[in-house]
## 1
Amino acid sequence: MSVRRIVVRDELCSGCRACQVACVARHDGLFGVYTARLRILKNEPLGSDCPRVCRLCGRAPCVAACPTGALYRDDTNSAVILKTEDCNGCARCLEACPFGMIALHPRTRLPLVCDLCGGAPVCVQRCPTGAISYGEQDRESAKPPAMHLVRPGPLSSAPHLGDGAEDIASSIGDGDSRV
Amino acid sequence: MFSYGGLVLRVDLTQGTCFSHPTEENLARSFLGGRGLNVKRLWDELPAHTDALSPENHLVFGAGPLVGTLFPGGARFNVTAMSPHTGILGDSNAGGFFGPELKFAGYDQLILEGRSDHPVYLLVRDDQIELRDARELRGRDVWETTLAIQQELGDPEVQVAAIGPAAENGVSFAGIFVNLNRALGRTGMGTVMAAKNLKAVAVRGTGLIPVADMTRFKEIIERLDTIIYQHPEYELRVRLGTTKLLKALNDIGALPTRHFQQGCFEHAEAVSGESIERLFKIKSKACFACTIPCSRFLVVDDPRFPSLRLEGPEYEPLAAFTARVGNGDLALALKCIDLANRYGMDAISLSEVISWAMECHQRGLLSSREADGLDLTWGNGEAILSLVHKVAHREGFGDVLADGVKKAAERLGRGSELIAMEGKGLEVFQADPRAIKAYGLGNAVASRGADHLRSEPWFEFSNDPEEGIRRFGIPETAFRLEYKGKGLVVKHFEEMAAIADALGVCKNTYNNMEVLSWDETADLLQAATGWDITGDEVQRIGERIVNLERLLIAREGITRRDDTLPRRFLQEPMPEGSGPSTGSVLELEMMLDEYYLARGWDPETGLPTTEKLRELGLHSID
């Protein structure tokens, strides 16, 4: 059984960052984007906006790298969870992530990892265009509202997990071989 | 202070020094922020008749309390200063991502004073403030400047508000641009920035903004999202943004065709928002945290304009380079818009000077020879493109146009003054005020000169007389060609527009889609700031801002006499070919009487009375 992941369709992303604001509001109880657990890579001259999310690697290098056992996988949804009291702030998880998706919180110095909001990610709920969805990797089932995308253009792509993420994620192993 | 950045940053460009102080909560409660707090600074800190291009002018950036929050489109900020274009209040507003970044860096306002002795840009990284050398950037356009700064700093997420060569060349209607394509276009704020030798402001903020009651705030936003997704305009706004107006205004005969000589345009279909969607739209784009992505990214496939890619456009620049100048070539119009953005000019003012020159040519007031040999026939794409370049560089005939239509007409004379389409020195927007009476009144009384965004009284399009009775006690208020009650309509929507600009939210949602009432706005503000505030108080803040702006322009000599529009709108009936608006004129005087009465202003002078100022707590500053 494969893991249910947050799936990205770059060409649908309007670049608004509503997902990031929702993420920070939930996790920090504040407004901002800097501590969001997902990113939007923008190229304004090209008009591209690319959401980047935690890939939920099967044998997650971040979890393997953690010397204190502060990172573990949630049994039900495979999310990487941080036990804050066990974290020593060493940042090895950050170095281990092959996608550069982990940063340290500027105030608490704890790693910012996506916990999938307990199985109902608020970023997905808030996304107005369907650019990120939870577990709908099939193109047919993730059909966008036509109004957001008029035609296949230079920005179109199949739904994916991020730059070459499928290749790397599969080499690391999928969800049925959890750490 | 909840929901605020918390600080005001003051930079003295002459001395190269800066300091910050806390945002004053008493001022925030009276003026909120953004446009409201900005005009308060000008009123308090500048003497009357301050020369807009002198070091003494203050250039104020301000982002209100909802900027950077979950509010859909809480993205907007204002830049305010005395205007070199009109000589009165200068103020302009844009969305995108700059405003939120300013808040995340910790600032509600930047106040820029003095003049640097060489070109610089201001870098704000949280509490690190730096003036950096910008000599290398001189003459570079908005795109080049923005990308060069991001590259120099090695940070593509730094938000840049830049000016282009038009501002540096002293074009009086040059704007400030964010996110490459988003214009703070009106009233020459870019020109003021250039006069300070300030090429750009770059901001990066890593902070987080506390809110008084997050749970309540989220509940309200969830309700708002539902209202927005179920709104009858939602789908059309996402597909076309404001360009939906081109066809709609053509249908009612309100387009500014060939410089307001006709209300319909024979090429409307070809240059409509629908055509842009069909031919060039690649994807939806949005401002910060907005659930209505009404902006569009376009790839224009036309061999004449290689690699033409841009975001937008809004309706105003679209009509500017199509109907207003008689051009039916959509790709050419988009090229003009892209150039106006890169050079850094207000597309509305630019289209007025070009279309004015074309009408002068049509009427034999201006020869081709006087216009550098250009053939100023309506719709001549070559001439239109050429004038965009010439104005930006103040080259040849472009120099005549570069100070706006009022000064251009004074220079040319020959009666061309009568067809200069401006109010208080600001060029009229892309709709014929004869066909939409409340908009006509709104343009006549607007505090920054003829402009629709000071009121946006869309209610007159509703055609719902019962709603007119419910809201204003007058059924006629619901019909665009009626007069009765329009003074009340404009007063109400001016206050809504002021609140939108002071909160930092978008008028498409707040005003046109009316997603929050006064009471609901107060609820949201209470959740955001913790203030005990009512809907009546919110309305009062809107009224206070409108009144203070009026005091500021009165200080520069503005009275009722100036609350008017060009003779064409007041005296010449709309000609045949203007659809259902054919035969209309704009009868302004009775609407003005009704407006001043509603405002509690002296109908003789058009100025606030002492009683009104006392009521608003503005008497002590009179």
## 2
Amino acid sequence: MAALTVEIVYRGIFQKNLAARIARGIVLSSRKAGRWGIAFGRYGDSPQRNGIPAKDFAIVADSKEELEQNMARYEPKEADVTIALDDTLAKGVESWAWYGLQPINKLTVPNGTLLMTSLQSFDELLKDIHRKDAPYTLALIRQKASFSGLWVYREDHTEARVLGALARLVPAFLPLDAVCQAIQEAEWGSELKVASARKAYDRVETRLVTPGEGNPETPYRFELPRWWEMREGIAIPAIPIGKPKEGGKGYVPERNPYFKKFTTRTMRPVIDFDKCVKCNLCWISCPDSCFDVMPDGTFDANMEACCGCGVCEAVCPVEHCITMVNEAVFDDNASQWEMWRRDKAAYRRWLEEKIGDKRATVRSHGFRFRGQYEEELKADLDIGGVEITAGIPGENAAHKTR
Amino acid sequence: MAVATTAAPAQAEDRELLISGSEAVAEALTLADIDVVTAYPIRPYDTVMQAIAKKIANGELVAEYIVAEGEHSQFEIVKHASTVGARVFCGSSGVGWAYAMECLVVTPPLRVPMVCLVGNRALDDPGAFGVEHNDALFVRDLGWMLVWIDSSQEALDTTLIAYRVAEDRRVFLPIAISADGAFLTHSQALTLVPPKAKVDRFLPRYDRGDLLLHPDNPITVAPQANEDWVMEIRRQNDEAMKRAVTVIEEAYADFRRIFGRGPENPWFEEYMTEDADVILVGMGTISLSIKVAIRNLRAQGKKVGLIRLRWFRPFPTERLVEALGRAKAIGVIDRDYSFGSPFYAGVVANEIRAAMYNAERRPPLLSFISGLGGREVMLEDVYKATELCYNAARSGRSDARTHWLGVRE
């Protein structure tokens, strides 16, 4: 093997700069080892939408000729290493670019590597990660997803940790010394970041995944129509008007039959139907019309349409009626209302378990109050993290470090 | 000798009016009972705008007449009106047409059967009013059908035909009718205006079918789409342009049947080409001086003919190749330029060169540029072109360069 292809799957916008830094870091590191490389994003992901899975790529090769074979494309057909920067991506990738649901390991070559940042166990993750008929290595960096606000870069060393882990996983292309040298010399480099990379090199956990291990579901897919099957004039039929839920009551809107949102969310609303006052606010505010009106007048969030934005939680006037919960703790997309109707006591146990899991529940797209960033940095340090520098993207962090 | 331009005798019901090409278009728009027209003045197109305004003011035509604040809005407004089922008309000239470019680009993929008049005008700079064809040729690659005319009668007839073709469900593409500034837009000629009853037989109502924007037919039009969709959308446009060939031929055949006039060959006029050694090719009113020159040359025993191209898009490749293959030399006189193109020629010359590439009979082809900015094409210019063509016919070889006729040198 004389070329290495790495894909970096991330949450659109929130991790855009992080993914780009990792892709650049891979190329710059391999350059230190005498190789050539390119870094690029999947153009079809642009313009990125909040949380929509997107991809960056880094390809490094021994020669410029080998590199050329891999250039001028939107997306490589296979990747030696797949990096997922958010463990809810274990459920798959539905990009902005209409590919259906792509398993997170779809491009990963046989005996390749899937590297994730996650606090979940291997077995928990493999409930979500789709089966593959070839073996591969699942590697974990033990940290939660590095999320920033829109366009902002979060200076928590995730890029250095990923590069350090790669030095362990694919040393032929990214020897640790080359990685450390690249980090040190890069525009965002510092001694602390080198230390983070070395720690990740030591701490990265791996487990071989055997063929057939993983989520047995068939991923959602569809065929794109041929030119003569499409309506002319770039005209798309409107989504038809919906129907009552049952017995002439309630309302279920029709939805886009192709673009599901199974994997676009990192959180989902958990609804306490006993607390609902049927005020309609979640239903009105949802930008994706994800709520179905139930026959009793309550609102069930349909997981085919929810993108996990959290507006419903924000507008709900009843305390603890709607709670956004980390997507990683759910194993299916079943209706919460149906579960509640079947067995109210069981539903309450389920609901309290999901909401009660604080570790899983705390999750943020950016920051919800002033000072949250500083609080999180301190919390990270308290559980054994490294001190964070004051680096700013595009500027030399070294002389800003005190 | 074939003389295709012979005017048919006036039908009893026809009115004979002395009108300009622009006024003839306005007569056709009245007969076609258009619904929405937008206007923004630029010479020479403004003559048609004024003529329509007069029609509406006189109560001869009931239509929305919207004065836009610029050409960009002008073309956007009719685009939208067309998607809700209105028969629309629009137009511009020169840099005004250029200012509308963004809207001109989106009109074919949205399959809007807009008909518009381009009063051909030189592009700025310098700010000249006279004719050049580069303005209309801007859109030659984009899915616009392009037709050139050379008389008031043809202006009227072609406008009616244009609606019939553009609004055919098999096509649904916009048509730009090109009329040479001054020579056609501003000079008046005797023109037959048919009665409305005949036009109604020829031109059905515009039916947008499943593409109609209407609450009863909820659709989204013009969404953002990425690389997964664009090639299919372009391929649809390609197919519509191919289907237009049949639709144009049907329309001209019906036009002749109903109105008792009009050419058998929709695509181009052939003037004295049957026995011609040299065939000259041009578009628009350049035909007038060439025809006079040809008659003089014939008197000297020189067998010269003219092919006046009407339809530039879709391009009549097979028919043109067949007609030109009969000559011993071809001379294409462009009223446009394409700086830096092969042989530094004009657009029509290179288009024909490309069309002839696989032809069995491929006579030498010479390219000429003349009449830019409305400069008159003189008989001497045509004589000179003919002489160069005869030289090429004798040697059997093209001189592989482009001659500027009528430039001070």
